[in-house]
Write a structure and sequence with these properties.
The structure is a single chain. With 329 residues, the chain is an alpha+beta fold. 43% of the residues lie in helices and 19% in strands. It contains twelve helices and eleven strands. It has a six-stranded antiparallel β-sheet with strand order 1-3-4-11-6-9. It has a five-stranded antiparallel β-sheet with strand order 2-5-10-7-8, covered by helices on one side. Helix 3 runs antiparallel to helix 5, helix 6 crosses helix 7 and helix 6 crosses helix 8. The termini are far apart.
Length: 329
């Protein structure tokens, strides 16, 4: 393969890993870069096979064509996510035994994939390492998932967010072979992170469907950290920012997580924790296990407006705090 060069001799084209008529050799080099697989030739080879690299790293981009009708079968995919980007020709993809309605698809660690391509098929392979995906999740959600994230297998270009992500992948392809892309390693790394974060936000996955304009929901592990922090510091003046910092998530992710998983807000949750503590203290006073007044208990748990405290308490327990305190008499 002849690569293009910019003035000064900089390489500006993709790197040819293999080009020729040996499908077995092509299978071998593809298996070394992506995943080992079995390959069956279904018809006569019409075109030279080719495998080219546009970029290799935590996010890698290749294009691949066998030049003959072929069937490929993988074992369990190793620790990476592979997005198939059809450029020309035709074929079908079966993931974990289910035939997909489109070859525009994504598979991940542990998936088993069967693909059939015609002789004219040329496909992009955008490979994201599991580590890159989980690092992006850790930044957003404060914890690593216990199991590999699983994306819905079919990308729908009718979805505006998915369509935008596909345009981003095309822009990445063009940038990698540009003179600037060959010179700017940091620029390529920013592109890699943008592709990972963009796919997490655009494509539904096992940690929740992306919320329109808001990204993925808060993971339960981060939600537990927020709840534990509220319980441990209920008697202190807290803000939503304090809770988000303790949960190691953004304010937006914190609010979305409480809304999605608990159907409430962080401050409403904190208020209920404080009401429960106040209720517990009033019961202790009523039973003779402690001493105090409604005002003292309310102030202890951050309720400085006694009328609002009484109204919130009545909504929670069906009677005013004075009635709880008075049961001891």
């Amino acid at each position: 393969m002849v690569t293009e060069t910019a003035p000064g001799g900089a390489v500006t084209g993709p790197v040819s890993i293999y080009e020729g008529n040996s499908i077995e050799e092509l299978r071998h080099v593809v298996g070394g870069r992506l995943a080992p697989h079995r390959l069956t030739v279904l018809g006569e080879q019409r075109l030279p096979g080719r495998f080219r690299s546009f970029h290799e790293g935590p996010v890698a981009l290749y294009d691949l064509g066998y030049g003959a009708p072929v069937r490929l079968r993988t074992g369990d995919l190793p620790d990476f996510y592979n997005v198939i980007l059809p450029y020309s020709g035709g074929g079908l993809v079966v993931t974990n035994g289910a035939e997909l309605p489109s070859a525009l698809s994504v598979a991940g660690p542990g998936d088993r994939v069967t693909m059939e391509w015609d002789a004219e098929a040329l496909n992009g392979a955008l490979a994201m390492s599991r580590e890159a995906v989980e690092q992006a999740l850790a930044v957003r959600l404060g914890d690593l998932p216990q199991e590999p994230l699983r994306f819905d297998p079919v990308l729908d270009p009718a979805d505006p967010a998915v369509r935008s992500w596909l345009e981003l992948a095309d822009a990445f392809r063009a940038f990698t072979v540009s003179a600037l892309g060959r010179r700017s390693r940091l620029g390529l790394q920013h592109f890699e992170r943008l592709l990972v974060d963009g796919l997490l936000d655009a494509q539904p996955h096992s940690l929740g469907r992306p919320a329109d304009g808001r990204g993925s929901a808060l993971l339960p592990s981060a939600l537990r950290r927020a709840a534990d922090y509220c319980a441990e510091h209920a008697g202190e003046p807290l803000s939503v920012a304090d809770i988000a910092l303790a949960a190691r998530v953004s304010l937006r992710a914190l609010r979305e997580g409480f809304r999605r998983h608990l159907d409430t807000t962080p401050l409403a949750y904190l208020r209920r924790v404080r009401l429960d503590r106040a209720h517990h203290d009033l019961l202790a006073i009523a039973d003779g296990r402690a001493r105090g007044t409604v005002t003292e208990v309310a102030c202890r748990w951050g309720f400085t407006h006694l009328g609002r405290f009484s109204a919130d308490y009545r909504r929670a327990y069906g009677h005013p705090p004075s009635q709880t305190l008075g049961r001891g008499a």
